[in-house]
Amino acid sequence: MKEVERLIRPDLLTLKPYSSARDDFKGKAEVFIDANENPFDNKINRYPDPLQRKLKDQISLIKSIPVDSIFLGNGSDEVLDLIIRLFCVPGTDELIITPPTYGMYKVLAAINNIFITEVPLDSNFQLVVESILKRYNRNSKILFLCSPNNPVGNVLNRKDVIKLLETFPGIVVIDEAYIDFTNEESYIKLIQTYPNLIVIQTFSKAWGMAGLRLGMAFSNAYTIGQLNKIKPPYNINVLTQEAALEKLQDTKTFKKNKKLIISERKLLVDQLSLLPIIKKIHQSDANFILAEFDNANESYAKLLEEGIVVRNRTNEIGCKNCLRITVGTPEENIRIIKTLETLS
Ligand SMILES: Cc1ncc(COP(=O)(O)O)c(C=O)c1O
Q1: pTM over 0.90
Q2: Atom of ligand 1 nearest to the CA of 205
Q3: Do 74 and 146 fall into the same domain?
Q4: For 264-280, how does the pLDDT look when each residue is reduced to its tens digit (9 = 90+)?
Q5: By residue range, what is the domain housing residue 275?
Q6: Around Cβ 61, how many Cβ atoms within 10 Å?
């Protein structure tokens, strides 16, 4: 896959990955004395399957995507980190991000000593395609897009994203952490069409497994193979693999909770827009809303005094006086509405 290979860190192309004796063994074994494990069974005494085969089989069914197009990480934060490491040469390469957006892109770039170029979204929180393309240089290895975007909650215009997939010469990562809360179509179906596309999703949001730490990347088999080469061999632990497999069977609860979160989002928007201290609520296709307050810092502090923690985004580009409020349980949502009513 030439289009992707030319973007990979040259030293990693020749990396010989770690391999365990169990990777080499293809038959059926009964005695495992190869990995210096403790032999006494307590359910977690063995190393996990490094390629998480059972779990990927299940994800493959849910997402209608082949197993060799799926990569799993310890949360999507680990997936994002590995993508940066795979493509970007520290001290030389850069990422393009479009603020306001998810804060970890910048942090991960800094940790990996990768430069950041920021091309802010326009006043409608949409991409400025021409500016992104203008800022591209041959060290701009990755463009990070987030749709629905955090912290605003809106979906990026599809025609802009497609234009970038067709014209941006580097890797395009589309972070779909909140995809289950929108009716917009995922870009997952396009991974075979665009070799430079990597779609990220997570089980931390609609699936309700943030504590497990399980994130996904979907891309062509070549890119997924390269990520497998550089990941820590046992990055998804036994308990996570087992618990996720069990939770993924329960699609009924997943659908029920997702529907409730979406209807509660509407209730929050309807009720909060009546309050005089709130000037605007941005359109959201995620499980949170971004609300512009008269004075965000003041409202944030008062909410904290009442024991309610929201996210203060007032210092983010384009988000002056904005607080991000996650949709909670119906009881929690009533509580935040009532508390804000008393502050109005
Ligand atoms: C846009 C976005 N991407 C990724 C993540 C990280 O998710 P995970 O829990 O899978 O690491 C978050 C978490 O808030 C997010 O908002």
Answers
A1: yes
A2: 9
A3: yes
A4: 999 999 999 999 999 99
A5: 252-343
A6: 11
